[in-house]
Amino acid sequence: DPAAQLEFAKYVLEHAEGMSRQEVNEKLQKKRYDQMTNEGLKWIKKLAGSGITVHRSNIAAESQFFLGTVYSQGIYGVDRDDSKAFAYYQQASKAQHAEANYRTAVCYEVGVGTRRDAARAVQFYRKSAAQSNVPAMYKLGVVLIKGLLGVSPAPREGITWLKRGAESATAECPHPLHELGLCHELGGIPGLIPDERYARELFIKASKLGYVPSQVRLGQAYEYGTLGCPVDPRRSIGWYTRAAEKRDPDAELALSGWYLTGADPFLPQNDTEAYLWARRAADSGLAKAEYAVGYYVECGIGVSSPDVNEARQWYVKAAQKGNRRAIHRLDELKRMGVQGSTRRNMARPRRGNGGAPDEGCKPM
What we know:
This protein is mostly helical and about 375 residues long. It contains 17 helices and 2 strands.
């Protein structure tokens, strides 16, 4: 049974590392691993050249696509080889393999394993989208809306593809839900009526599939009262927390802001947590977080004592990335010279009626 052979070969490859660990030393482990991966790949290569179709499933094309992934990622003891990966994707695409059509399009778009060819990329995105491949529907929608890859803008058709993609969105590809949400939130697309409440529904669906940008957007909506949401600290903090757990720097900085002001009774004010969350975001290279850490250090918030010299170092990092507030603060510190910081006795940030920190003392 070719289908069973393919599944067994994949099983061998996927479990080669774990099974090889049963050997007593590294040399035997490597030998066992190489034996298993070589055997698994041998069977898949044999199936890739077989041309076998079973119950409308093209086993050869599926094997070719699998091999394309192996060479693209350089896994199972195989060196990465973009040219071989592209060749296998192309072979599978000739058998109308939807994912292979999509991967072929990506190769043509970015020039991996082949020369760049925007027209061919669009052609293969269309093929894959017509086969209901969600990443392809999302990509084609964005290309048509924004007029990318040399295509004349066709926003109505683009929205149609985004809607189709959103209807089939998965945890692996929630992107069309978020992109369609942005379209309805921001408007400006011919034939599309802005609808913030519908945008919120789409963001919620994407967030429940684990899409971090949508989780951040909902955190902002419940913090500032946008998208038809009430100001709700508990929900805002909840969505930011889910995104921050996946190390999103914008969410981490937003949590810093909530800890800085507190949100009784949901979140006690805590300077140390405010500093630590901002520091995590800053360590990811987020310019506005680097500015916030500078602010905290200069004011002595969440740290043992104020330190204008360390603060200046953080402001420089942020300023080098174009952060205007950091640039302005460096200018102020330069004018003050040896007088040092004037922020040590500043008023504590607090939340205004809209839920956001008052502008006068907001470090974000």
